[in-house]
Amino acid sequence: MSRVCQLTGKRPITGNNVSHSKRKTKRRFLPNLITKRFFIPETKEWVTLKVSTSALRTINKLGVYEFLKEQERKGFKTGVKLS
Questions:
Q1: Are 82 and 11 in contact (CB under 8 A)?
Q2: 3-state secondary structure of 2
Q3: CB atoms inside a 10 Å sphere around CB 77
Q4: What is the number of other CB atoms lying within 10 angstroms of the CB of residue 32?
Q5: How far is the C-alpha of 76 from the C-alpha of 7, rounded, in Å?
Q6: How many Å apart are CA 47 and CA 71, to the nearest integer?
Q7: What is the pTM of this model?
Q8: Which domains does the chain have, with CATH numbers?
């Protein structure tokens, strides 16, 4: 399964492990993802999304329906039908 936030599009990035002797080896920085179920009262349905914790904080602030509408306005494909 891919490690990509379904709402913000955050994905792993690459960098270096740097040892004490400054030797560099490649590594991956993974996003902090959580699989969470949300209830959308406007559509009266549950959706399961894999979201980053930063997106989760924004959802707590705005509400899931508003956040999904905002992401659609920005052009993100969330995979959730908002009718």
A1: no
A2: coil
A3: 9
A4: 12
A5: 7
A6: 16
A7: 0.78
A8: 13-74 (2.30.170.40)
Give the tokens for residue 56.
Answer: 């989760």
Instruction: Report the pLDDT averaged over residues 60-64.
Output: 91
Classify the phi-psi angles of 61: left when phi > 0, otherwise alpha if psi is within -120 to 50, otherwise beta. alpha
pLDDT for 25-42, tens place per residue? 999 999 999 999 999 888
* Continuous H helices in the chain: 53-62, 64-74
* Amino acid letter for position 55: A
Would the CA dihedral through 79, 77, 1, 30 be positive or negative? negative
DSSP code for 75: T
Query: Which of 81, 76, 83, 82 has the alpha carbon at shortest distance from 6?
Result: 76
Tokens of 43: 């559509």
Residue with tokens 């406007």: 42
